[in-house]
Request: fold
Amino acid sequence: MKVEITDVSSTRKEMKVIVPKEEVNSVTDDIYRDVSQKVTIKGFRKGKAPRNVVKMFYADYIQGELSKKLVNDKFEQAIRDNKLFVVSMPEINNDLPKEDEDFTFTAQFDIKPDIVLDKYTGFELNKMKVNVEDENINDVLHRLQETYATINEIDDPEYKVVQGDYAIVDVVCEETPELNRERMTVEARGRSALPGLDEAVMEMSVGKKKELDIEFPDDHFMEDMRGKSAHISFTVSSIKHRELPELDDEFAKKARQGVEGMDELKKIILEDLTERIEADSRTTLERQIQDKLIEANPFDVPESLVRLQAGMMIQGISQRLTAQGVKLDDLYPDAEAFQNETMESAEKLTRSALIIEAVAKKHEIISTDEDITKEIDKLAQRYNMPSDVVRKGMEEKGSIDEMKFGIVEKKVFDYIIENSEVKDVDKLEEESDDASADSSGADE
Reply:
């Protein structure tokens, strides 16, 4: 077999394969032998029909099998012999094979890029300081208080709404009846379906009535009211007061299983916050490294490889949404447009993974059996499951290889951090977030 390989681009090859007639005849004989053993031809026992008779009945099938077998087998052999890492389906072009003649076919395909590392250490990196203040701990305690708060109906007619109370209101809008509501719940200085109503209920008592001009923002969840204004009148029909529990040892025992008192609860909260901030700090540091690696090491990436990564990302998103009872099609009805939007992040992820792989190869950074066992034990502890059950589940899903890459990736990041200049900073520059909080209210 003769193989000629030419470059179409830095990541795309064209291969010309010439199969000598002796190999063509040998494969042809095998196919004839296999067909004659399986088919029944009238007048002949199985396997005893002459070749010309078999050919008369099954010529098209035999030629199709011959073409398929020659192309598939010889292409795979040529790939192995030339140590090519193919990342796309080959585009095959060939004539029909004939006995006693050489068979030639060509194949075009994308290959994994050969990464030449220009720079992967000596970066200037910023790392967010891990610093937990008392106010951070108090914020967590307050959220725990809200979780265990009791909601009590107010009987006192003189009671006035304070922040955090739930005011039950009846809304009337003569010019826009669609805004009329009965017994709508409004969290004072918290949440309301109608902008400004959460502030307007402050200091009101049951039975009190008030008028309010409302300006709807352009991004309001009520699409028909975006950018419009309305005049409403509303009456407080009832008030519910949210009473927070005392921050004492009994509360600590209730808030966290196994905790004996408030001091121990605060210590655990400190540990949890520190761990979370350390994880966030590490994540932002790794993102910096990824950006710098991509900028410092330019190379061509085949679109087929990026599209494969985008497809895997979309599949992952779809699975997570399905687990939440949401269909991907409902959020992104245009599948092609969604995939194109995913391509940019997929390309970044692909480039980063290839560079990390190249660094790992250069410095012989690997994941050991001990590393994998430790990671599985961590997962088992997190989900309160036996380690062998977790391992078996990952093996069945084919997730071990993904875990191996994650381990290698972390080791590569560690190596780059150790060989770069890392500056601790109080705050990192963040990308602007235009996403507005959900301000929708709920009818009681």
Summary: DSSP finds twelve helices and twelve strands in the chain. The radius of gyration is 34 Å. The domain at 2-110 is CATH 3.30.70.1050 (Alpha-Beta Plaits). Residues 431-444 have pLDDT under 50 and may be disordered.
